[in-house]
């Protein structure tokens, strides 16, 4: 542990350091180490059973088909460059972790390790990714009868939605900024009690780390205002669901490789090839970016999420949208709309890189930009244009993921087996649940 970090802890009278990670179900977990014991774990991190990455969303027992068990030990090695001081936790600091094995090697089942490995693969081509997320969430309260109710009844971009939560959103933004997160914009979303706060893009590992910070901070600040912030994809059946759109671009030596500099407002050849890989693998990616039953309640035609395997310039109903700008360089990024907050951000971004690399390396098909609402296309139209409907259930998405050689090889046998095992076990445990039970159980999981 560098002297500067020790000085930082001493300067702020820190008593506890929390070692934090996100598991395969995207639960944020961690352990607090007292400052008097920090030297003993400063290099290695605290030890845990390998089975912790096989835990399911609602039950702290290891999924039988995950390949993991209570036998064996790994260490949550701190990445001290991520040390932060959450303003709402006086006396506590937090640091992100990468899991390592006894010999100090990166543990293959760690999502953050997976993303770092994909970053290295991209770097072999002299490239790096930057990314950002659009964070949507519902603000709810529990009624006297136990029902879950939205905290306002505004609609998309209505000013009353912002007014209803002004003090909460002000405090949330300031608390994020204090933790080094650049806040860009905020508006009321389409669902009642739903807001969106956009944070600025940054290097892809930092973007994933920020997601954990955002979620934790939003939950804490909302609780202080007597409200519950939930990132569950669908809380109210009649209202819009909650997504977590991903924006990403590819750089080389600081130059954005997405725009075609000769033809403004069009993708470059590199941008097209990277997009072709993500589009090609999208049916399998759905097993990662839409990872729970509840995710598919959101992914419905006409709900601005994308249900047809297509892409389009400025097309809000395409799952892969290429947004343009008024002035060149344009476009500067690609947006994946099917991702939600049940998805582990390290797995999401790592899988996007793996899919995009396949597009860079192989001549994969890229259909023409879809310039109409894809939901109006008939089956004949889809066939003629080489388009298809995306999976409408998690079972199909997980089967697609397992059959996808590129993504399975990128994840590796340990991580892929554990992930599929956890997700399929969760599916089995939740089989037959009515919507109300699903929401009650999962409301505070994300």
Q: Can you characterise this structure?
A:
By secondary structure, the chain is α+β, with helices and mostly antiparallel strands. It folds into 2 domains: 3-107, Glutamine synthetase, N-terminal domain (Ubiquitin-like (UB roll)), CATH 3.10.20; 119-442, Creatine Kinase, Chain A, domain 2. The chain is 34% helix and 19% strand. The protein has 13 helices and 16 strands. Strands 6, 7, 8, 9, 10, 11, 12, 13, 14, 15 and 16 form an 11-stranded mixed sheet that branches. A 5-stranded mixed sheet has the order 2-1-5-4-3. Helix 6 packs across helix 9 (345-361), helix 7 (282-289) crosses helix 11 and helix 11 (394-403) packs antiparallel against helix 12 (405-429).
Looking at the overall shape, the CATH architecture of the largest domain is: 2-Layer Sandwich
Radius of gyration, in angstroms, nearest whole number: 21 Å
**What class would the helix/strand composition place it in?**
alpha+beta
Helix content: 25-40%
Which residues sit in consecutive blocks of at least 5 with pLDDT less than 50?
Answer: none
Please tally the β strands and state the result.
Answer: 16
The SSE string, one letter per element, is: HEEEEEHEEHHEEEHEEEHHHEEEHHHHH
Q: Work out the helix count.
A: 13
- For the termini, the CA-CA separation is 31 Å
Total separate domains: 2
CATH topology of the largest domain: Creatine Kinase, Chain A, domain 2
Round the mean pLDDT to the nearest integer and report it: 95
Shape: globular
CATH homologous superfamily name of the largest domain? Glutamine synthetase/guanido kinase, catalytic domain
CATH class of the largest domain: Alpha Beta
Main sheet overview: 11 strands, mixed
Q: Report the sheet-strand fraction.
A: 15-25%
């Amino acid at each position: 542990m560098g002297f500067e970090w020790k000085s930082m802890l001493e300067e702020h009278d820190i008593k506890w350091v929390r070692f934090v990670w996100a598991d395969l179900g995207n639960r944020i977990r961690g352990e607090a180490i007292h400052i008097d014991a920090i030297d003993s774990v400063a290099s290695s991190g605290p030890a845990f059973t390998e089975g912790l990455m096989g835990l399911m969303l609602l039950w702290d027992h290891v999924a039988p088909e995950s390949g993991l068990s209570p036998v064996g030990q790994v260490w949550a090695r701190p990445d001290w460059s991520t040390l932060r001081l959450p303003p709402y936790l006086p006396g506590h600091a937090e640091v992100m972790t990468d899991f390592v094995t006894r010999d100090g090697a990166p543990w293959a089942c760690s999502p953050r390790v997976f993303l770092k490995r994909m970053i290295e693969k991209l770097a072999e081509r002299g490239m790096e990714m930057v990314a950002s997320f659009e964070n949507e969430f519902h603000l709810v309260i529990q009624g006297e009868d136990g029902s879950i109710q939205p905290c306002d009844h505004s609609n998309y971009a209505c000013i009353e939605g912002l007014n209803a939560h002004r003090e909460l959103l002000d405090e949330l933004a300031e608390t994020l900024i204090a933790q080094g997160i650049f806040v860009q914009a905020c508006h009321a979303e389409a669902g009642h009690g739903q807001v969106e706060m956009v944070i600025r893009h940054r290097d892809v590992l930092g973007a994933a780390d920020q997601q954990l910070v955002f979620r934790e901070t939003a939950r804490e600040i909302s609780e202080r205002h007597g409200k519950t912030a939930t990132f569950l994809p669908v809380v109210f059946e009649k209202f819009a669901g909650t997504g977590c759109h991903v924006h990403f671009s590819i750089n080389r030596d600081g130059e954005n490789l997405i725009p075609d500099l000769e033809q403004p407002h069009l993708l470059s050849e590199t941008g097209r090839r990277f997009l072709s890989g993500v589009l090609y693998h999208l049916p399998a990616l759905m097993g990662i970016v839409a990872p729970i039953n509840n995710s598919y309640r959101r992914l419905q035609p006409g709900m601005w999420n994308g249900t047809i395997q297509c892409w389009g310039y400025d097309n809000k109903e395409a799952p892969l949208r290429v947004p343009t700008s008024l002035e060149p360089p344009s476009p500067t990024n690609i947006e994946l709309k099917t991702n939600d907050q049940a998805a582990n951000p390290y797995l999401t971004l790592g899988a996007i890189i793996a899919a995009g690399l396949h597009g860079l390396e192989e001549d994969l098909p890229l259909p023409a930009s879809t310039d109409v609402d894809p939901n109006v296309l008939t089956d004949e139209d889809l066939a003629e244009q080489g388009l298809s409907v995306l999976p409408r259930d998690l079972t199909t998405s997980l089967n697609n993921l397992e059959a996808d050689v590129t993504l399975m090889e990128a994840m590796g046998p340990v991580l892929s087996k554990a992930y599929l095992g956890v997700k399929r076990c969760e599916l089995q445990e939740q089989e037959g649940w009515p919507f109300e039970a699903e929401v009650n159980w999962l409301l505070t999981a994300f």
